């Protein structure tokens, strides 16, 4: 049985997308060269839309199959694993469902049951079909340790936990909350990533490593966001209602950052590793420290795409050195006057 999957759009260099600040050059020819975000205005020379297509019209899936065949030839000991995980399936959705089910299974939550759940959700949800491709593209493009699309599908728990969350989120929205919570619990056990199924997460997301990531119930994460390990998007106590952070499109959140409360991290902002964020962050701002303070401005539209975590290093060091030098000069001036 063949798959009916997502809309594929061929992207040209002149394509633009609207943002809150007006038309911006769409950079997906570099970042998402195959799959569009859905709100593109295509140039006449590049317009090509395919709705229902065979697996051969899915370039990422074609790449994954080719990579799996090549790896099976290089490592014959993995040939059975690669056949069962990739080559035996007719589309990315079913291969992903097989991989996730076998990673999440336990004696009471059987792989066959999980495969059935994943299949029913992913094969009937075009939003998830698009997201799993945009996400795997994000891993391939932004994580230098991800050498191919198949590596993300087969080995990277950041990708696995994110796609398992997407299924749990769909189940939550269908009213199957107990099953969604059971899946969340198992995801947390296996991958050490705890994302509440009610949280809202956009497309083109990178969870780099993922270990220790916590995302609360009312958190919102925009498109093209990159999140490192050990991040907490949490509340500030026992309050109920809307109580978790909102992360804007294209933001980059460094390892170990803690962001607490119903606050906003603006589009294109960068939070340095280890920062504690307790206040709103304006768009395209760099913040660092405990508590976090603005140390500069991000020039890039989406710092999540470049992954330059040390972009604020020189500015931050200059700020600290300048502050220290000012204190020394002040002390000398005082001593001279005295």
Automatic annotation (TrEMBL):
Keyword line: Acyltransferase, Amino-acid biosynthesis, Transferase
Gene Ontology molecular function terms on file: serine O-acetyltransferase activity
Alphabetical list of SUPFAM superfamilies matching this protein: Trimeric LpxA-like enzymes
InterPro entries: Hexapep, Hexapep_transf_CS, LbH_SAT, Ser_AcTrfase_N, Ser_AcTrfase_N_sf, Ser_O-AcTrfase, Serine_acetyltransferase, Trimer_LpxA-like_sf
A Pfam family that the UniProt record links to this protein: Hexapep
Domain Serine acetyltransferase N-terminal residues, every copy: 60-164
Cellular component per GO, a single term: cytoplasm
GO BP, one annotated term: cysteine biosynthetic process from serine
Ranges annotated as spanning the membrane: none
Domain of life, source organism: Eukaryota
Catalytic activity, EC: 2.3.1.30
Keyword Acyltransferase in record: yes
Pathway: Amino-acid biosynthesis; L-cysteine biosynthesis; L-cysteine from L-serine: step 1/2
Similarity remark: Belongs to the transferase hexapeptide repeat family.
Subunit structure as annotated in this protein's UniProt entry: Homomultimer.
Protein name according to UniProt: serine O-acetyltransferase
């Amino acid at each position: 049985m063949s798959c009916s999957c997502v809309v594929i759009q061929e992207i040209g260099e002149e394509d633009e997308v609207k943002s809150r600040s007006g038309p911006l050059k769409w950079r997906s020819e570099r970042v998402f060269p195959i799959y569009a975000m859905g709100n593109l205005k295509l140039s006449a020379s590049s317009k090509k839309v395919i709705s229902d297509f065979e697996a051969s019209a899915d370039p990422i899936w074609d790449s994954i199959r080719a990579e799996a065949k090549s790896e099976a030839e290089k490592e014959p000991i993995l040939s059975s694993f690669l056949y069962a995980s990739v080559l035996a399936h007719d589309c990315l959705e079913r291969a992903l469902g097989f991989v996730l089910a076998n990673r999440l299974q336990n004696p009471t939550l059987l792989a066959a049951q999980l495969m059935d759940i994943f299949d029913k959700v992913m094969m009937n949800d075009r939003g998830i079909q698009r997201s799993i491709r945009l996400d795997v593209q994000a891993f391939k493009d932004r994580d230098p340790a991800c050498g191919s699309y198949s590596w993300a599908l087969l080995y990277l728990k950041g990708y696995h936990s994110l796609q398992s969350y997407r299924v749990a989120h769909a189940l939550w929205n269908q009213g199957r909350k107990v099953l969604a919570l059971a899946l969340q619990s198992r995801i947390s056990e296996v991958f050490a990533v705890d994302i509440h199924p009610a949280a809202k997460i956009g497309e083109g997301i990178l969870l780099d490593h993922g270990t220790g990531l916590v995302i609360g119930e009312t958190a919102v994460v925009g498109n093209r966001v990159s999140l490192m390990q050990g991040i907490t998007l949490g509340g500030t106590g026992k309050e109920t209602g809307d109580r978790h952070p909102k992360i804007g499109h294209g933001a980059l959140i460094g390892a170990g950052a803690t962001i607490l409360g119903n606050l906003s991290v603006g589009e294109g902002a960068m939070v340095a590793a280890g920062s504690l964020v307790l206040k709103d962050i304006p768009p395209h701002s760099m913040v660092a420290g405990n508590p976090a303070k603005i140390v500069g401005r991000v020039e890039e539209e989406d710092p999540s795409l470049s992954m330059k975590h040390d972009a604020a290093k020189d500015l931050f060091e200059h700020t600290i050195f300048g502050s220290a030098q000012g204190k020394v000069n002040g002390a000398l001036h005082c001593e001279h006057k005295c």
